[in-house]
Write the structure tokens for this entry.
Amino acid sequence: MSGTSGVGGPIWDAERATPEWLTLALRRSGAAGDSRVVRRSVTRTLRTGTADLYWLALEYDPGAPPLAPAGLVLKLARADAEARSGAKEVQFYERVAPEMPNPPVPRCFDIGRSTGGREWHLLLEDVSQGREQPPYNLPPTEPMCGLAVDSLAQLHAHWWEHPRLGRDVGERPTDVTIEAAAERAERTAEAFVAFLGDRLPPARRRVYDRLLAGQRALRRRQMARPLTLVHGDPHWWNFFYPQASSDGTGTQGPAILYDWEMWGVAPAASDLAHAIANAWFPERRQRLEQPLLRRYHAGLLEHGVGDHTWNECWDDYRLFVATNPFTPAFQWRRGTSPLVWWANLERAMLSFEDLGCEEFVRA
């Protein structure tokens, strides 16, 4: 099996991540000096749609440097899964993360990829050590949310209209890809509306009707905005947050953004509309939406994006909130539980109404 890797090609079985193999990978990456891994144990496993994940606890011989990782996450391609999204994550750690100074992402210690891309592995920092997440579906605290938008601002600013976008980093949207996205959304939303039947009231059915009639022009307008590199799925549980300090005065360090299977090239507001409007019901969204977006905009300015005004930031956000009603339709089509997409449908419709997104789809 040919491929590229620091330690001899991709592995496809966690048993191959022996202490000797891990020692070579960590030495090659410079993470463990000359020390040697003497023992490793699997503490947790998880199977996703594209990969099998193994959390590894490591023990070293005496003299290991203080920053040698005590835990790693080994991510292996599933043999029965489509490789495309997993291969995208490999590309992220190969091409994107190394080009950013102090990126708010997990450190990658080893990459293996076969020539065809179907077999691959990633050996990543275990970002759960020393960091935390709120329980799933419980919103993060306000300080956590601020750190998350800081990390998004850092990411987006670095790649803002970067000359490598579409050249050797991602693919820029084209008329063909915009039209294809519109066609997929049309087929999916029509089936979704039919499935919902009278569970979708007439006023919300009319929202879908207007979106379907005007979405091609809307998507062209969206993709005409400044482009950057986006995460693609920046929900609040795709961040790990620094733990609060022991004296209760706050948190230290960045929020680490992981799970890079859906990254791409798009306007920054696509990430923000997903993270905020798609996630929160009106009370929390209305209370935190503008403060977080203003903090994000200040972060863009701090990181060197000087030609994007606050009004542009706010209008771009609303522009992408306008297409959020398609999100629950795609989730339904993928077989996601109604426990997820039903709430997302409610939030998408409420934010569409509350933020006056009707103006973007008026005939």
The longest strand covers residues 37-47. The CA atoms of residues 34 and 344 lie 50 Å apart.
